[in-house]
ATP synthase protein I
Amino acid sequence: MPTEERPAPPANPAWRIEHLPLLSTVSMALLLCAGSVGFFTGGPDSALGAAAGVLVVTVSFTMSTLVIAWADTVRPALLMPLGMLTYVVKYSLLGVILAIGVGIKWPGWTALGWGIVAGVVVWTGVQAWWVHRRVTRKVI
């Protein structure tokens, strides 16, 4: 219900996820680039590791976006609890995977780490650019 403190939500709830096609496209391009760089610098294991790192970030960030968009559509009061739960679960799983991975002697682990870093930096940068572009478009 709209109040003075809280305006009515937009009529079209798709705005919550309209950035996903662009981010998914950029992430897939990054996945191909990371795999290529990994292959040329460390062979097939590094290619697989780098691509897997980017894929982990893409799936993780997409999942968070979808959960938060769903919660906002169903009941905005669920936004904070579900958003926090999503982050806790995904970072706990990532921590467990990386903790287990320390004991595994696979040549692709370093590339996997770099793929994760690249995925986070690129996803965050593109999403920030997209939001900035959207906000400046509304202001002008």
Summary: Helices lie at 20-42, 44-74, 79-102, 109-139. The chain has a mean pLDDT of 87.
